[in-house]
Amino acid sequence: xxxxxxxxxxxxxxxxxxxxxxxxxxxxxxxxxxxxxxxxxxxxxxxxxxxxxxxxxxxxxxxxxxxxxxxxxxxxxxxxxxxxxxxxxxxxxxxxxxxxxxxxxxxxxxxxxxxxxxxxxxxxxxxxxxxxxxxxxxxxxxxxxxxxxxxxxxxxxxxxxxxxxxxxxxxxxxxxxxxxxxxxxxxxxxxxxxxxxxxxxxxxxxxxxxxxxxxxxxxxxxxxxxxxxxxxxxxxxxxxxxxxxxxxxxxxxxxxxxxxxxxxxxxxxxxxxxxxxxxxxxxxxxxxxxxxxxxxxxxxxxxxxxxxxxxxxxxxxxxxxxxxxxxxxxxxxxxxxxxxxxxxxxxxxxxxxxxxxxxxxxxxxxxxxxxxxxxxxxxxxxxxxxxxxxxxxxxxxxxxxxxxxxxxxxxxxxxxxxxxxxxxxxxxxxxxxxxxxxxxxxxxxxxxxxxxxxxxxxxxxxxxxxxxxxxx
Length: 472
Known about the structure:
The chain has helices at residues 38-56, 72-81, 85-102, 118-130, 159-164, 204-216, 230-245, 276-280, 285-293, 305-322, 325-329, 343-355, 360-384, 389-408, 420-439, 443-455; strands spanning 3-6, 11-14, 22-27, 60-65, 134-137, 140-143, 180-185, 200-202, 220-226, 250-256, 259-261, 264-265, 301-302, 332-334, 386-388, 458-463, 466-471. By secondary structure, it is of the alpha/beta class. The chain has three domains: 3-281, Rossmann fold, CATH 3.40.50.620; 303-416, Four Helix Bundle (Hemerythrin (Met), subunit A); 419-472.
């Protein structure tokens, strides 16, 4: 049984799909006018893990993540770069997809672009006008908030409170300051499409409603995104979608917390952001993924290079453990039960943590505790050169659990530069050369290999069963 925290009800509830074992899931994607930063990466990785966990539990996930490829920010960037708006969008979609591939984020089932769904958007706006929920004003079209009595139910904001802080922008012809744009008439020189109201383009909120309905139907299971999207974006999506269909738009709303820098939300507007590409120049994608999953998805996460260094050391603990398989296989088998690790208990803890609102922090904690216990057994066995059959089986089972769990969480386990296989073989080759040098009593050269490897962060340990290595 999977439980998740639903933003609408503000409760942790049992997930029950609308149809059988299918999960219809929509996550708001980026507005593509710049390279993705760590805040974008967190949302992508969080919902990638949620999707993967549903699949692990036997669900079929239909996962939609959109691109907003026409927007004021894109038009502004196009003017700055002296290229058409669609080239800006194409450039940064390619950049985003490069980042997602590096982070091992699974491809969405569908990844619609706003510019390719103008017909569906116009049809929906036309329907809202017909039903009396929207109105045209000098080429613009607005949604009438007062016609939707439940407005504010997601963000828990009352209309009178909202009115106190809202102002009408110059040129807007709204009947009510809270009304929001469904269609915007293009200014001279701006891109647009023909519509019954004007040559223009969609408002931001209507895009997600129209695209999600095309691929997931009028009611989806889960709608996700960052906390900053609750208001106004997701609030407006609910209003226009439920006004249009008369049905529940999303059965569960899931939101991830902010990435913080010096106690402020990471954002392009504040200029305190780090792009994914900048971070991946210094840290592996697996290390960044571990950092992002080390805090529960709903909580804020403090970003710093020091925290990434901590994540790197933690990731090295994981990969060091996964390298012991060959050494364990070569140990002499003793009679008796011994003291095997209770791997089943850790598997249960991992799965319960993930079922409990996708608690990756607790799930990873279970894996690290398993590794701690397994290493105690492993170290004793390596020093003695012996192990019972039950103990050996438990260590191999622990290795399988850790590797399988990490892959379920989306880790590639390809080492710091994505070349784990080649790197490991080179280290093994140096260990072999060192062993031959020691046999020939050329200890100075053998010690030089050991010392230089240590400088590179690779520690060698000579045991009765042979030489093993780990990252330090």
